[in-house]
Amino acid sequence: MSYERKLGLAFSVLEAARIWKWNYNPPLHRWVRKAGFKLRPPFYVPFWHNLCIRFVECFIFFFPLIFLLGSLIAEASEFHPLYESVVVSLFYSVVMCLYYLWTFKRCQLSNWDEL
Fold first, then answer.
1. What b/e readout covers 32-67, taking b as 16+ CB neighbours within 10 angstroms?
2. For residue range 58-113, what is the model confidence (pLDDT) as tens digits?
3. What pTM was estimated for this model as a whole?
4. Cα–Cα distance measured from residue 111 to residue 67, given in angstroms and rounded to the nearest whole number
């Protein structure tokens, strides 16, 4: 089965499971798919792979924000924004991956290869 058909079937299964559209088809994923990359919905990606993707996504957006806004601590080193960004990105990615895993099991979704 082609990627487009699997993706359409996965979207219909996720919609039937009453999962919010922005959870299974976020705007960033739509843009990346338009660029030609073949991304699966996050519910069909293995946990560790999903963890890495979510970490990078969050870090790319959060680090420049923290770096540009600066720190309120006068004695903060130049590594403080990096440390904050890593901690926040790690927390976000773990929480989101646990949510995806929990929803995958709760809705009894099939694996990507079985679609």
1. eeeeeeebbbbbbbeeeebbebbbebbbeebbeebe
2. 999 999 998 888 766 656 677 888 899 999 999 999 999 999 999 999 999 999 99
3. 0.86
4. 40
Structure-block tokens of residue 11: 């979207």
Over the stretch 36-72, which tens digit does the pLDDT of each residue have? 999 999 999 999 999 999 999 999 999 999 888 876 6
Structure tokens at 60: 């790319």
Three-class DSSP labels, the chain? CCHHHHHHHHHHHHHHCCCCHHHHCCHHHHHHHHCCCCCCCHHHCCHHHHHHHHHHHHHHHHHHHHHHHCCCCCCCCCCHHHHHHHHHHHHHHHHHHHHHHHHHHHCCCCCHHHC
User: The dihedral of CA 99, 45, 48, 90: what is its sign?
Assistant: negative
